[in-house]
Amino acid sequence: MIDPVLLRENPQLIKRSQELRGESTALVDAAVEADAARRTAIAVFESLRAEQNAFSKQVAQAPKEAKAALVSQAQELAARVKAANQAASDADSEFIEVVQRIGNVVIDGVPGGGEDDYNVLKEVGDIPAFGFEPRDHLEIGELLDAIDMQRGAKVSGARFHYLKGIGARLELALMTMGLDRALAAGFTPLITPTLVRPEIMQGTGFLGAHSDEIYYLPDDELYLTGTSEVALAGYHADEILDLSNGPIRYAGWSTCYRREAGSGGKDTRGIIRVHQFNKLEMFSYVDPADAEAEHERLLAWQEEMLQSLGLAYRVIDTAAGDLGSSAARKYDVEAWVPTQERYRELTSTSNCTTFQSRRLDIRHRTDGGKTAPVATLNGTLATTRWIVAILETHQQADGTVVVPEALRGYLGGLELLEPVAR
RNA sequence: GGAGACGUCGCAUAGUCCGGUCGAGUGCACCACCCUGCUAAGGUGGAGUCCCCGUAAGGGGACCGCGGGUUCAAAUCCCGCCGUCUCCGCCA
Q1: Which chain B positions come under 7 Å from a protein C-beta?
Q2: Is residue A379's pLDDT more than 90?
Q3: Model confidence over A283-340: pLDDT tens digits?
Q4: A80 noted as active-site residue
């Protein structure tokens, strides 16, 4: 949720942000109005309540014989208080309902527009060239007996897969490598719940426009999370954190579930876009003043992973319209996928500033001793999808795949993945 | 799944039976000051969170797990939910 004070004092700033996102500016006017109505209603209620409180003290202290008369007077006042209370809470709900539909205020420099309006910040590494026709990741995965889509579909349906043998080991190796890097950087590992309550899902901003992306279990009123970010953000909900020793950082390890409802027939081949995968996610709670610097740090750790794995990639500054409601800025690191002859997103890191923490009520103490919302940031350190880029990038004509050096230690020293006769 | 107990201001607790004098006592921890020949003991005072009005000083409101209800008035009575614990059953 955006800062209500900012809304009141500088609605223009929020309108500009909405414009960059390609979203409604009328919503900002509506929110400002709802805020004013809400405050008026609260003032009316509170002065009536003050009157009632004072009256109530009189009743309590009055001698027995005077009580009956006072009570009948008080009854009339009580009815007005009740109505005013209802009006105030209705006005408050109305305000929350409107203000929640406004996306986080984008940071200066974020390009306006939609999916294709990103800025390329850098391109790193040489795009691999092959003296042969490269195989796509699924073909290689099947040669290596590492990926089994048919049986995934048989058991669970389209967009489900098995990782088998070296495929399973490869995923664990990637995740563990990421975890080791995270540990070295001071992150605390956290294996998180993947089913969460509605309040938590709501608080992280995932129940907005894209709620049809999320699996829901109505019998239990629980949501399956599409990223451990949800449980990592919820971890410190309703708490006041001590950030005096710097950011609090967690590395969340979890399975992720996505309905992929809007993706139509895209990426139906292989494991690029699946309903269930694993991910190691960085999550930081920081002083808002430090948020942009932390964002750069998260990006740097992601780039180190890609570089260690010998992948060619680029970094894009995602356009405002493609941010998602919680993010104020998002960088995607995209690896080159040879058979698609284009870059595909492997990681994403978002600066959510204080947007999530306001909903989840996560605060810290400022130097003045006051409480203030913290900033939250998240970023991918490894996921199942990376296997796609690794297999394709490091493949050889004979169907073997060279294991990137950084990964060998996690595969018992294995240097070459070789086709398996089945 | 069945039965029961519990959830209070950082922590530990009192208050709940018998509604108002309870936004709430006590201990520990905390902060400031005082005292004391020492990192002890003692004394005095202070301190929660959120919101509204106000430039401010200040004023007002809400908060006793969460949400409803009864009542002039709810930490206290009633209902629902969430959580914790104990016992039984079940599964392993």
Answers
A1: 20-21, 49-53, 60-62, 68, 71-73
A2: yes
A3: 999 999 999 999 999 999 999 999 999 999 999 999 999 998 999 999 999 999 999 9
A4: no
pLDDT at A68 over 80: no
A71 CA → B22 C1’, Å:
22
Annotation says A269 is catalytic: no
- The three-state (H, E, C) secondary structure of chain A, written as one string: CCCHHHHHHCHHHHHHHHHHHCCCCHHHHHHHHHHHHHHHHHHHHHHHHHHHHHHHHHHHHCCHHHHHHHHHHHHHHHHHHHHHHHHHHHHHHHHHHHHCCCCCCCCCCCCCCCCCCCEEEEEECCCCCCCCCCCCHHHHHHHCCCEEHHHHHHHHCCCCCEECCHHHHHHHHHHHHHHHHHHHCCCEEEECCCEECHHHHHHCCCCCCCHHHCCEECCCCEEECCCCHHHHHHCCCCCEECCCCCCEEEEEEEEEECCCHHHCCCCCCCCCCCCEEEEEEEEEEECHHHHHHHHHHHHHHHHHHHHHCCCCEEEEECCHHHCCCCCCEEEEEEEEEHHHCEEEEEEEEEECCCHHHHHHCCEEECCCCCEEECEEEEEEEEECCHHHHHHHHCECCCCCEECCHHHHHHHCCCCEECCCCC
The pTM of the full predicted model, rounded to 2 decimals, is: 0.91
Closest nt to residue A5, judged CA to C1': B51
Catalytic position from the list A19, A303, A304, A345: A345
Do A346 and A278 lie in one domain? The reply is yes
Q: Model confidence over A154-192: pLDDT tens digits?
A: 999 999 999 999 999 999 999 999 999 999 999 999 999
Classify residue A41: in a domain, yes or no.
yes
What CATH number is associated with residue A280?
Answer: 3.30.930.10
Please give the ipTM for the structure prediction. 0.82
Q: Are A62 and A146 within one domain?
A: no
Spanning CA of A197 to C1' of B89, the rounded length in angstroms is 29
In the complex, which nucleotide's C1' lies nearest to the CA atom of residue A55? B72
Active site residue A284: no
Q: Do A136 and A235 fall within a single domain?
A: yes
Which protein residues have Cβ within 7 A of any strand B atom? A 4, 39, 42-43, 45-47, 49-50, 52-57, 59-60, 67, 71, 74-75, 77-78, 81-82, 89, 363, 370-371
**Residue numbers of the domain that contains A398:** 119-417
Active-site entry in A39, A273, A314, A344: A273
